[in-house]
Amino acid sequence: MLAKSLPSEQLNAAYYSDDNQIHDIFTVTDYLVSEKLDGIRAYWNGQQLLTKTGNIIHAPTWFYANFPSTPLDGELWIERGQFQALTRIVLDNEPDDLAWKNVNYMVFDLPHSSAPFSDRYHQLQVLIEQQRDQNNQPLKHLQWVEHKSLDNLAILVQWLDIISSHDGEGLMLHHKSNNYTSGRTEHLLKLKNHHDAEAIIIGYEEGNGKYQGMMGSVWVKTATNNTFKIGSGFNDQQRQTPPAIGSTIQYRYNGYTDRGIPRFARFIRVRNNPDS
What we know:
single chain, alpha+beta, CATH 2.40.50.140, 2 domains, five-stranded mixed β-sheet, 30% strand
């Protein structure tokens, strides 16, 4: 199930407008809201963990040995800001037991249930709580993603600001009456205070001052053939050994300039994909 992005500027415009405009966008009380996790999508088919394109995720047997036979949809996740570490763990075809002990499977849906999402969410909670290890203890690494029902848009905006200020990705809004679907749906909304995108590195510029002798910025090209420089977001180690030309990076930005260039673009990470 893929989400439709809802720009935060549209949300804020609605927040400061009349109630009619707010309800033209969405009615907050119709949704269950959760934090958007910075993880890797993973589908449990009852026997294996799979990526969103169906490739096998090579987790240790102990990780999923006590998972239910019921298919699950969720994300592998460590904590905020740990996507790169997670990617290295998940991409390894020879699973590292010690590293996988830091990983959680955060489940947010039941693909084979025909119930509306509000009911599926309760079914999911019951199912996860029933799972036990060989010592009859709860599976700490198998968790359901907490969803909340909010009373008004002001609370939603406040929660989004709190998540964003603590390096969170944003919020997900799932319509309570939505049925599970494998494609994109307008009943699942993704809300962020910023935009993320990807581009390919095509060149470097040397740094100045304290970055003399290191990479100062990278030139990138987007899928729409826009080229521009990104010079912020890199740490010293990345400037000494920058991502390779031809690699895909993820960057974050806040709107566009008059020339259509992403404003305040900053490097987030090299975008390694478990499906690549």
